[in-house]
Specification:
Elements lengths: L21 H14 L4 H4 L8 H23 L20 E2 L9 E2 L2 H17 L10 H5 L2
Antiparallel strand pairs: 1-2
Helix pairs in contact: 1-3, 3-4
Organism: Halcyon senegalensis
Protein name: MOB3B kinase
GO molecular function: kinase activity
Length: about 140
């Protein structure tokens, strides 16, 4: 398990919501509805009186955390030798472009691609201009 939780790997600790904040309460409500076995459409429906952008942000961060955990369990089996290409089956190859280091779409081994992708997502989620953490700030940013 040491390899799974190695900071140099793609796995990152869960991004948590500050207890006592509106996002924390929305997260608890989302978790309760998803764990209750109700139909998925009802589980993701915007709670009455809540801001849609805050609700979506909570789910984006939760999705990132879940994907991170899943990838953390398989990353030791997908090495540059065993996964030399980031692909979605035989018909699709994913290439990385970030307009900084990789100016053009570049073929990379799957682990390297995933590290870059997870780093990029983490930067987006931590960007207060995109995912503000202050209550009600999402409304201002997206207007």
């Amino acid at each position: 398990l040491k390899q799974v939780f190695n900071k140099d790997k793609t796995f990152r600790p869960k991004r948590k919501f500050e207890p006592g904040t509106q996002r924390f309460e929305l997260h608890k409500r989302a978790q309760a509805s998803l764990n209750s076995g109700v139909d998925l459409k009802a589980a993701v429906q915007l709670p009455s009186g809540e801001d849609q952008n805050d609700w979506v942000a909570v789910h984006v961060v939760d999705f990132f955390n879940r994907i991170n955990l899943i990838y953390g369990t398989i990353c030791e089996f997908c090495t540059e030798r065993t996964c030399p290409v980031m692909s979605g089956g035989p018909k699709y190859e994913y290439r990385w472009q970030d307009d900084i280091k990789y100016k053009k779409p570049t073929a990379l081994p799957a682990p390297q691609y995933m590290n870059l992708l997870m780093d990029w997502i983490e930067v987006q989620i931590n960007n207060e201009d995109i995912f503000p953490t202050r209550v009600g700030k999402c409304r201002e940013v997206l207007k």
